[in-house]
Specification:
By secondary structure, the chain is of the alpha/beta class. The chain is about 35% helix and about 20% strand. It has 26 helices and 28 strands. InterPro entries: Aldolase_TIM (IPR013785), FAD-bd (IPR002938), FAD/NAD-bd_sf (IPR036188), OxRdtase_FMN_N (IPR001155), YqjM-like (IPR044152).
């Protein structure tokens, strides 16, 4: 058949085929038909009309509002069947804690499908049940648009993987969808600590007499408990016995239920034009998945359908409409997937949290996805948050971020750290007036700890010619000037120094002249664990360090530590992250040595630990020492989260007082999963697996984030970089915005008059009384 040109939406009515009769596919079909009754819309569903899996579906208020606007008839019918509740309950170790004000709506999946079937029939949508759809490419020969809503195992996505670019990631837990024949009055989480490990229940009502019950556990627990050998009936019976607080001895039932592992689906593209001219677009689970613990699967599919229909109406032709649909939905979905990933990971690591005090555990669970935070949870249920704060020893009226924290002989007034930020503004390694003003301003801004940039231990250890150092007397004297100012004038801040060596990432231009680009002239030779350039074909090839050089560099670190002590720093951090020299030893991607310093992780740790020990010996015993690590390389074959726990444990055993948990920047081909607080789960895991204090860093941007992380026990300190560039007084302003005036954030005396937000306009105008 001859290929057709792109079809203008205002021309001949479209012929549409929908593969998959789930909620997303059906809703897309009825919207497309409702918006243009002349369209020929056909849905192919391989199951029978009455077939379905699962039990209840949860819809957000935003999704329900979208349905109401798009099709009031469907909304009215669905509303009559919806069950609503606003409480979340956490049952754990004999206690049930409740948090109110959350707001959910759910209904039975079978009911939802029945309503959509009926509305499709009324509108004239063709419904072909018990019919396997032809391949999408074949349908595209006769249809203008093929909507692939064929689920997580999408045959369409697989057949056109070269175009869509899918990534399907399996995860560590097994889960099964079951139901109970009674209605809960809240969303209920119950945690069962069995002899084999932790098993969790996610349960919620979806009808006046029924509740969904999803049971989930780690793969190894699932096998050890023998669930892998149980059929559906036996699995339901075994699960029912695990959750007495929720079920009270009542049974669970299945619906062709089976244990499965969750898979996260991501696609680079969501649509393409078929060879015959028709267009194929992904929708719902075929395009993306997000873990059920944030209740998003049906919600996302329905919102996809709403967006697709709207874009087809708004755009001049199919390619423009599908491009607009993808552009609109991808950022929303990626954001949801980040939240779902945080929630999924939290439940995968649930065993690390079960020993937390009751309210901390419940608060941690409720805020696990980072979408519910300390501040909005306080607005929803102030009494619950107040109870969690009392349990944690937070004084009344004090935000958690303004509680003190002690390491050795140093007590920080609050939990805010100005993160190390390279300024590239030194001359011959000597910090000048810029550093005095830069660090001094931030020390006056209320943070509990201000960190220098990475201070290099030798001229050849610099990243750029503008990097600061601590290898001679002039540098030591210049740093003493900075620490003296901080100690004399800041009412809150301690000051810490970060020592490092650039390794293979050295001898480059200043950041704003070309980050990671070699100097055009004046280069110095580089050293590294192995002769591997940072950017192959661009960066200088470093020399692999010899035993003599290893000893010399170690001694340079120790000498710099002694200078840092004399210069008056309160804390020292050893930089073992971001692909610099010591980080290069830790990662298997950058350490290819065959001697005692390469190979297994224990051997790769050897040299960084030798340096740490030398620095710790040179550093005063009463002053704390931390270490910064990259907890993942964001690259295949690199450092993993499991490795990071072992690395952190090793440094803690050698005397590290806290671990500063960053990620990445180790290899140029990394693929980080950026997003709000995206690195904090790695800090969280290390803290709760090892009981080691951690500093969380990575797109922590709001005081609400800091409060949430501290109260949940995911971090002890939070390091922020860009917010302190935007606002040197970020911490003091955070206190003012929360109405806090206590000892955790005193204003410098000369600034005290500015401790309240200036008025922005008249607020005393007379209020209206009459309307005439």
């Amino acid at each position: 058949m001859t290929a057709r040109p792109a079809q203008p939406t205002g021309a001949r009515a479209l012929r549409v085929a929908v593969i998959g009769g789930g909620p997303g596919g059906l809703y897309a079909a009825l919207l497309l038909k409702r918006l243009d009754p002349a369209r020929e819309v056909t849905v192919y569903e391989r199951g029978a009309r009455e077939d379905t899996y699962g039990f209840g579906v949860v819809l957000s208020d935003e999704t329900v509002g979208g349905i109401e606007n798009a099709d009031p008839d469907v909304f009215a019918t669905l509303r009559a069947h919806m069950v609503r509740w606003d409480a979340i309950e956490v049952a754990h170790r004999g206690r049930v804690l409740s948090s109110a004000g959350h707001g959910f709506a759910a209904l039975g999946r079978r009911t939802l499908l029945s309503v959509l079937h009926e509305r499709c029939r009324e509108l004239g949508v063709g419904l072909r049940f018990s019919t396997e759809a032809p391949p999408a490419a074949e349908l595209a020969r006769s249809c203008d648009l093929v909507v692939a809503a064929d689920g997580v195992h999408s045959a369409t996505r697989t057949a056109h993987a070269d175009v869509f670019g899918p990534t399907v990631t399996p995860h560590r837990c097994r889960y099964i969808w079951l139901a109970a024949d009674f209605a809960l009055d809240a969303f209920r989480f119950e945690i069962a600590e069995t002899e084999h490990g932790v098993v969790q229940l996610h349960a919620y009502p979806f009808a006046g007499d029924a509740s969904t019950a999803v049971v989930e556990t780690r793969e190894e627990v699932w096998r050890a408990a023998g669930f892998d050998a149980l059929d559906e009936h036996a699995s339901a019976a075994a699960c029912a016995r695990l959750f007495p607080e929720t079920l009270g001895g009542r049974p669970l039932r299945g619906n062709t239920s089976q244990w499965t592992a969750f898979r996260t689906v991501v696609n680079e593209r969501w649509w393409h034009r078929g060879a015959a001219g028709g267009h194929i677009v992904l929708l719902g689970d075929a395009a993306h998945t997000a873990h059920f613990s944030i209740g998003s699967g049906t919600k996302l599919a329905v919102e996809d359908a709403l967006a697709l229909a709207a874009c087809l109406r708004e755009q001049p032709d199919l390619p423009a409409a599908l491009a607009a649909y993808e552009a609109e939905r991808q950022p929303v979905v990626r954001s949801t997937q980040r939240a779902a990933s945080a929630s999924l990971t939290w439940f995968e690591e649930l065993a690390e949290y079960t020993g937390q005090p009751p309210y901390r555990f419940a608060f941690n669970l409720l805020t696990r996805s980072r979408r519910v935070t300390h501040d909005n949870l306080r607005l929803r249920d102030a009494a619950f948050v107040a109870a969690a704060e009392r349990e944690a020893g937070v004084p009344e009226g004090t935000p958690p971020m303004f509680t003190p924290f002690r390491m050795r002989g140093l007590t920080l007034r609050n939990r805010v750290v100005v993160s190390p930020m390279d300024m590239y503004s030194s001359q011959d390694g000597v910090p000048g007036d810029f550093h005095l003003v830069h660090l001094g301003a931030r020390a006056l801004g209320g943070a509990g700890l201000v960190m220098t940039e990475m201070v290099c231990v030798s001229p050849r250890g610099r990243i750029t010619p503008g990097c600061a150092g601590l290898w001679n007397d002039a540098q030591e004297d210049a740093w003493r000037r900075v620490t003296a100012f901080v100690h004399a004038r800041s009412p809150t801040a301690a000051i810490g120094v970060q020592l490092g060596h650039a390794g293979r990432k050295g001898s480059t231009k200043l950041m704003w002249e070309g980050i990671d680009e070699p100097l055009p002239e004046g280069n110095w030779p580089l050293v590294a664990p192995s002769p591997l350039p940072y950017r192959p074909g661009v960066s200088q090839v470093p020399q692999a360090l010899t035993p003599v050089q290893l000893a010399a560099v170690r001694d340079q670190f120790a000498a710099a530590a002694s200078r840092a002590a004399r210069a008056g720093f309160d804390l020292l951090e050893l930089h073992c992250a971001h692909g610099y020299l010591l980080s290069g030893f830790l990662s298997p991607l950058t350490n290819r040595r065959t001697d005692a310093y390469g190979g297994a992780l224990a051997a790769r740790l050897r040299y960084p630990l030798e340096v740490f020990d030398a620095v710790r010996e040179a550093w005063p015993a009463d002053r704390p020492m931390t270490v910064r690590i990259s907890a993942t390389d964001w690259a295949e074959g690199g450092t993993t989260g499991d490795d990071a726990v072992r690395i952190a444990a090793a440094f803690a055993e050698h005397g590290a007082d806290a671990v500063d948990v960053s990620t990445g920047q180790v290899v140029a081909h990394e693929r980080p999963d950026f997003g709000r607080s995206y690195q904090t789960p790695y800090a969280d895991r290390i803290r709760n697996a090892l009981g080691v204090p951690v500093i969380a860093v990575g797109a922590v941007s709001s005081w609400d984030d800091v409060n949430s992380l501290v109260l949940a026990g995911r971090a002890d300190l939070c390091a922020l970089a860009r917010p302190h560039l935007y606002d040197p007084h970020w911490t003091l302003h955070a206190a003012a915005e929360q109405g806090y005036t206590g000892p955790g954030a005193p204003w410098p005396e000369p600034y005290r008059a500015g401790s309240r937000r200036p008025p922005t306009g008249r607020t005393d105008a007379p209020k209206p009384r009459l309307a005439l």
